[in-house]
């Protein structure tokens, strides 16, 4: 008798003799495991799967600790009426401030730029050269000379003969766009007044016009003014799931209330904190519903496959025990689960049940063939025990070798899955047979549910074994075709495509990207002091892939700069009278129209010149095209708002009337402008941190009063492509290796995941193959056992592009799993083939059926994930595993019999 | 704007290539000297002795002769070319660049006219450089800007470029601008040092000329930055019977930026309609 047979016989005898003791021991272990499992903590962030020594991870942790991760919630209001949108934003903010359940989690909220701050320090934040230009404008505040000065300033800065400014950076692009927005509002308001002077008292019109010009949009409108956005900085680490859920839950209520109040607007939310909360909700669904659906389907399958319903219950009990043991071991070893290992329970459900199926199939078949329960169990162990053991061991070994990939996430995953496989195998080998012997019916009775015989598996095996040449030729053709299709596989690098697209936070994320041309997921770095922040900010602003940098340093110029600026501000302060009482004549209206036309020309040429540094379709050309007729070089495109032409047409239609109206407006506009300019130029000292708005200090300055957070937003679409992300990382790394956040961490994670996944696949296969060589002691049988897997892998990867399914970082990471699971089919069948001395019929009658049921249950599990999972990422994992297992099964049932030959 | 215009000027001068900017008369005067010096070099090569050496005898004359020969090879009275300019904000990142395409006409040493073909938004924008003055025409507004007296030392970032006006040879030939000296003779190339005669953005240039009299590389040095920039010329192609580099790369080692110029098509010694070189054309 062979050694393996003797071992299996010994186990069988032990189980048959001690079948009442084993469940008792199992229950004790079960309780102990439950207690140990309490030690496990859940870590759901990508950073938790990266090496702790990584400087970006260290920076991230530091920022979490000191600044709550620089995370935000963005509230958005969409509509066409700017005033209504502002009212809605203010109401939202007031409601939030009034709610203790929200404010307990709020560190800072920035609804708009502080008007007083702009009045006091606005000029100080402009370059000395710009203040000098501004001074010229402020010297003539009556509308007509003011427009002339405005054009002069424009030409000096951008389009004129001596212009110094080239628009190359995102900062310049943003500033120019803001200026165009300001111009649009100013000239639209001017036209509205001239057209309908009765709509508002002229004093108010003058004030509003002056305010618009000097303060611009204090609210954060997108360039086309169709969206207003404001931010909330939470006071907690967004890893704290409960607080995140509480905060977003309350914000949803506030948003719903505002939506009801403003039915013409669309109110919503996004930001990394909001996406995190929405993900949790979706994750809850994905973890529960597909698993439940799979469980029901499996029970139905079992009911039609095994005559005794109770055996299904026994196998599920044994499986649950195995999984709980795994969590018990986890509780005393690693003590944590991450995003990848959290899927372990579902995977173990699919894998662990397979060992039970082997036992159940053999046991019930022997019983049907007239064997007593004890003899049926002994036969089960002797005939299929070693195959099951080998399959479990190879799978477990495959997972354990993941520890050698050098990846933290794969090491943990491999270790846990390896332990899980061992636990489930032991549980199925000892607990399930004990339950079958103890509580199973002594006599076989016919089931009320018709039982499937699975004879087709045996027939199929016999057929392809007989028609081996045809089978192999057809198999080779299909395999070659699918092999060629492998190269058509596309990789989806956009992580946002892996998020459930229906989530409100994801819908708004996309809108913000589109409307503000920036990605709302931030990167950040801690500056040691303001000087450090200034240096970092300047360097980061030069990176074209960054849309915006927010930093306290932008509000604190150097002493030297401040000195130069104060000098220029003093000149404005000490100016003689800045305006006179002026009466406009009809000829002045011609001059007025000329100046308006000049503004339009300057804006058009500014757009032309911006193309050189920023390319086509930049924010400036887009904004320009929106307010004028779209220009394409010599061609003319679609109509815009025609802001300037409509004003010119209006004043020219009745010069006398509009000269009179302009005279009235001019008086109030010039006076109001003068008042604001006087206030703005009253600055006589340097700006310090203490002068900055509270919400800026709250969100960016550390308690020590020195360290501060520099936050940067990547350009629109940057997270869609790994290459773009890597290029940004490279640039950011040159500025400071400590810059961390979404882009570096995702990239780091992806960079670790892809080679680790590939290495894992190679390691698993090599280990399993070596193990097969040792156990089979035959190269031929080892190769034969590997063939269903190899062919299955080719089919799986070839089917993906044919069905239009893309690979992504998550489903790619799960490909090694297919090796761990798919190899089992070949091992089971080849081992049984050897045990049965080359009897194909017996091999496929017993083990073929078991393999089919194992694969089908696994496919049901993964298929339900693929079809019901709300996370495209989870669905894609389910999909690739479904096709992988399905392909390996087909190959094992069709191709393998054609290769098996009796000696 | 200043930078934009400088780049436009530079692009327009690219049409006949940097080496071409040379007066015909000068070439004829020096032809004899060139032959003598080059003959000496070939004899040295035929003896099979070590070819990489420091030039000792009459390095200035040797250098001038080589440069003249190189310039002679590239000279033209008038040319038309189709050019792409690719500006890379990061020299080590070949994926991030902006491209502009222009059609350029040149006449004589300083006069050029060019028209943008792409990007679409600025298609039709024109630039005329005539006797030191420049005009830009915006088709989108039909306005013309006259630009005068731009510094030749200015770097032309913006529309893109690490070139300065003087890098492109605008305003004079090498002998006129530099004191030249042959400093090294390598197996396949000569290395000529040029020290600017007048105030310049660089303190020294090293010109690498291959034995086919093609300029293959120019290194620019400054007192402050040392090796500031390198202009490399690649892919010699036949354009209208002339062998010329089809790709020029100017890399700024301090800013870590680069600008690539691709010549798609070039015609030489052609007849160009006078209208291209008349500023009144813009004022119609």
Description:
The complex is a heterodimer of chains A (903) and B (284). Chain A has 903 residues and is mainly alpha-helical. Chain A contains 33 helices and 12 strands. In chain A, strands 3-4-2-5 form a 4-stranded antiparallel beta sheet, with helices on both faces. In chain A, a hairpin with a 2-residue loop joins β9 and β10. The mean pLDDT of chain A is 86. The N terminus of chain B is likely disordered. The longest helix of chain B has 23 residues. Chain B has 4 helices and 13 strands. In chain B, α2 crosses α3. Chain B is α+β, with helices and mostly antiparallel strands and 284 residues long. In chain B, strands 6-5-4-3-2-1-13-12-11-10-9-8-7 form a 13-stranded antiparallel beta sheet. In chain B, β11 and β12 form a beta hairpin. Chains A and B meet through α22, β9 and α27 of A and α1 and β6 of B.
List the helices and strands and how they pair.
The complex is a heterodimer of chains A (903) and B (284).
Chain A: H1 3-17, H2 21-37, E1 41-42, H3 55-67, E2 73-78, H4 82-98, H5 100-103, E3 106-110, H6 115-121, H7 128-138, H8 143-159, H9 170-195, H10 202-215, E4 227-234, H11 241-261, E5 266-270, H12 272-305, H13 309-332, E6 336-337, H14 344-368, H15 373-400, H16 408-439, H17 455-466, H18 468-486, H19 504-516, E7 523-527, H20 530-541, E8 546-550, H21 559-573, H22 586-614, H23 619-627, E9 631-632, E10 635-636, H24 643-653, H25 655-680, H26 694-700, E11 708-714, H27 722-735, E12 740-741, H28 742-776, H29 779-802, H30 809-813, H31 815-835, H32 840-868, H33 872-899
Parallel strand pairs in A: 1-6
Antiparallel strand pairs in A: 2-4, 2-5, 3-4, 7-11, 7-12, 8-11, 9-10
Chain B: H1 2-14, H2 24-46, H3 59-74, E1 78-88, E2 98-107, E3 111-118, E4 126-130, E5 133-138, E6 143-148, H4 174-177, E7 178-185, E8 189-196, E9 204-210, E10 215-222, E11 226-239, E12 242-252, E13 257-268
Antiparallel strand pairs in B: 1-2, 1-13, 2-3, 3-4, 4-5, 5-6, 7-8, 8-9, 9-10, 10-11, 11-12, 12-13
Helix pairs in contact in B: 2-3
């Amino acid at each position: 008798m062979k050694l393996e047979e003797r071992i299996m016989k010994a186990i069988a005898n032990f189980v048959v003799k001690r079948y009442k003791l084993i469940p008792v021991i199992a229950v004790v272990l079960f309780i102990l495991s439950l207690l140990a499992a309490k030690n496990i903590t859940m870590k759901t962030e990508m950073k938790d799967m990266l090496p702790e020594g990584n400087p970006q991870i260290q920076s991230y942790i530091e920022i979490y600790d000191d600044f709550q991760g620089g995370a935000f919630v963005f509230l958005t209001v969409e509509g066409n009426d700017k005033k209504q949108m502002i009212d809605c934003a203010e109401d939202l903010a007031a409601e939030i401030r009034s709610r203790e359940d929200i404010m307990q989690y709020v560190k800072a909220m920035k609804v708009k730029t502080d008007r007083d701050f702009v009045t006091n320090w606005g000029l100080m934040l402009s370059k000395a050269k710009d203040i000098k230009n501004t001074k010229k404008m402020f010297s003539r505040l009556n509308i007509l000379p003011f427009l002339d000065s405005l054009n002069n300033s424009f030409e000096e800065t951008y389009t004129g003969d001596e212009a110094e400014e080239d628009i190359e950076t995102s900062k310049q692009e943003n500033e120019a766009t803001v200026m165009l927005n300001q111009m649009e509002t100013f000239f639209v308001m001017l036209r509205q007044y001239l057209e309908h002077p009765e709509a508002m008292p002229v004093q108010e019109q003058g004030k509003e016009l002056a305010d618009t010009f000097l303060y611009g949009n204090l609210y954060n409108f997108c360039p086309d003014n169709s969206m207003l956005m404001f931010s909330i900085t939470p006071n907690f680490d967004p890893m704290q799931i409960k607080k995140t859920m509480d905060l977003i839950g309350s914000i949803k209520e506030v948003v719903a209330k505002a939506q009801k109040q403003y039915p013409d607007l669309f109110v919503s939310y996004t930001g990394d904190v909001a996406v995190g909360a929405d993900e949790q909700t979706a994750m809850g669904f994905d973890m529960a519903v597909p698993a439940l659906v799979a469980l029901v389907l499996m029970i139905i399958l079992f009911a039609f496959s095994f005559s005794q319903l109770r055996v299904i219950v026994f196998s599920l009990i044994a499986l649950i025990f195995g999984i709980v043991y795994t969590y018990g071991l986890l509780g005393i070893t690693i003590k944590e689960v991450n995003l990848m290992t959290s899927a372990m329970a579902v995977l173990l459900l699919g894998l662990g049940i397979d060992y039970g199926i082997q036992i159940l199939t053999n046991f019930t078949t022997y019983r049907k063939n007239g064997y007593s329960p004890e003899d049926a169990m002994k036969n089960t162990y002797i005939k299929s025990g070693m195959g099951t053991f080998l399959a479990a061991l190879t799978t477990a070994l495959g997972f354990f070798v993941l520890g050698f990939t050098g990846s933290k996430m794969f090491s943990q995953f491999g270790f846990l899955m390896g332990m899980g496989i061992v636990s489930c195998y032991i549980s199925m080998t000892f607990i399930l047979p004990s339950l079958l012997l103890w509580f199973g019916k002594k006599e076989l009775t016919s089931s009320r549910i018709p039982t499937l015989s699975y004879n087709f598996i045996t027939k199929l095996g016999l057929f392809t074994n007989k028609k081996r040449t045809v089978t192999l030729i057809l198999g080779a053709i299909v395999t070659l075709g699918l092999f060629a299709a492998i190269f058509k596989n596309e990789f989806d690098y956009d992580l946002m495509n892996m998020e459930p697209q229906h989530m409100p936070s994801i819908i708004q994320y996309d809108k913000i990207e589109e409307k503000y041309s920036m990605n709302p997921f931030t990167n950040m770095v801690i500056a040691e002091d303001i000087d450090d922040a200034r240096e970092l900010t300047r360097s980061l602003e030069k990176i074209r892939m960054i849309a915006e940098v927010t930093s306290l340093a932008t509000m604190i110029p150097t002493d030297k700069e401040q000195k130069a600026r104060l000098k220029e501000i003093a000149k404005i302060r000490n100016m003689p009278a800045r305006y006179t009482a002026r009466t406009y004549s009809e000829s002045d209206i011609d001059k007025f129209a000329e100046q308006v036309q000049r503004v339009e020309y300057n804006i058009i040429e500014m757009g032309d010149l911006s193309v050189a540094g920023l390319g086509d379709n930049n924010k400036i050309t887009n904004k320009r095209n929106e307010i004028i007729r779209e220009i394409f070089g010599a061609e003319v495109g679609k109509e815009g708002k025609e802001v300037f032409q409509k004003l010119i047409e209006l004043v020219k239609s009745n010069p006398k009337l509009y000269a009179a109206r302009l005279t009235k407006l001019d008086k109030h506009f010039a006076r109001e402008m003068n008042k604001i300019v006087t206030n703005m130029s009253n600055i006589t000292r340097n700006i310090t941190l203490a002068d900055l708005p509270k919400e800026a200090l709250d969100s960016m300055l550390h308690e020590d009063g020195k360290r501060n957070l520099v936050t940067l937003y990547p350009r629109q679409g940057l997270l869609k492509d790994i290459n773009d992300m890597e290029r940004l990382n490279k640039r950011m790394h040159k500025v400071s290796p400590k810059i961390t956040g979404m882009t570096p961490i995702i990239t780091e994670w992806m960079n670790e995941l892809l080679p680790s996944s590939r290495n894992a696949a190679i390691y698993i296969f090599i280990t399993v193959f070596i193990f097969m060589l040792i156990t089979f002691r035959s190269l031929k049988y080892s190769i034969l056992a590997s063939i269903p897997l190899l062919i299955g892998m080719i089919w799986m990867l070839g089917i993906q592009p044919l069905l239009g399914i893309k690979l992504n970082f998550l489903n790619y990471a799960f490909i090694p799993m297919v090796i761990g699971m798919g190899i089992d089919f070949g091992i089971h069948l080849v081992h049984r083939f050897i045990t049965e001395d080359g009897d194909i019929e017996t091999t496929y009658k017993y083990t073929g059926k078991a393999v089919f049921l194992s694969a089908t249950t696994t496919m049901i599990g993964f298929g339900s994930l693929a079809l019901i999972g709300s996370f495209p990422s989870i669905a894609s994992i389910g999909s690739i595993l479904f096709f992988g297992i399905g392909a390996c099964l087909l190959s094992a049932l069709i191709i393998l019999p054609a290769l098996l030959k009796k000696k | 704007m200043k930078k934009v215009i400088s780049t436009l000027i530079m692009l327009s001068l690219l049409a006949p290539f940097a080496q071409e900017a040379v007066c015909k008369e000068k070439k004829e005067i020096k032809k004899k000297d060139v032959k003598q010096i080059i003959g000496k070099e070939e004899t040295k090569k035929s003896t099979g002795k070590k070819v990489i050496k420091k030039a000792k005898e009459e390095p200035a004359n040797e250098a001038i002769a080589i440069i003249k020969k190189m310039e002679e090879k590239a000279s033209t009275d008038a040319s038309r070319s189709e050019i792409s300019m690719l500006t890379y904000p990061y020299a080590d990142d070949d994926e991030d660049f902006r491209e502009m395409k222009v059609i350029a006409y040149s006449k004589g040493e300083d006069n050029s006219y060019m028209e943008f073909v792409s990007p679409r938004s600025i298609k039709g924008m024109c630039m005329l450089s005539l006797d030191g003055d420049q005009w830009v025409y915006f088709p989108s507004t039909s306005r013309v800007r006259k630009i005068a007296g731009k510094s030749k030392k200015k770097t032309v970032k913006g529309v893109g470029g690490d070139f300065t006006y003087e890098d492109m040879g605008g305003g004079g030939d090498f002998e006129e601008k530099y004191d030249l000296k042959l400093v090294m003779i390598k197996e396949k190339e000569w290395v000529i040092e040029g020290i600017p005669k007048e105030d310049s953005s660089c303190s020294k240039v090293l010109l690498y000329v291959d034995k086919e009299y093609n300029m293959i590389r120019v290194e620019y040095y400054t007192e402050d930055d040392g090796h500031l920039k390198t202009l490399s010329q690649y892919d010699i192609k036949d354009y209208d019977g002339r062998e010329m580099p089809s790709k020029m790369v100017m890399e700024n080692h301090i800013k870590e930026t680069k600008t690539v110029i691709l010549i798609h098509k070039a015609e030489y010694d052609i007849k160009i309609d006078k209208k291209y070189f008349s500023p009144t054309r813009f004022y119609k």
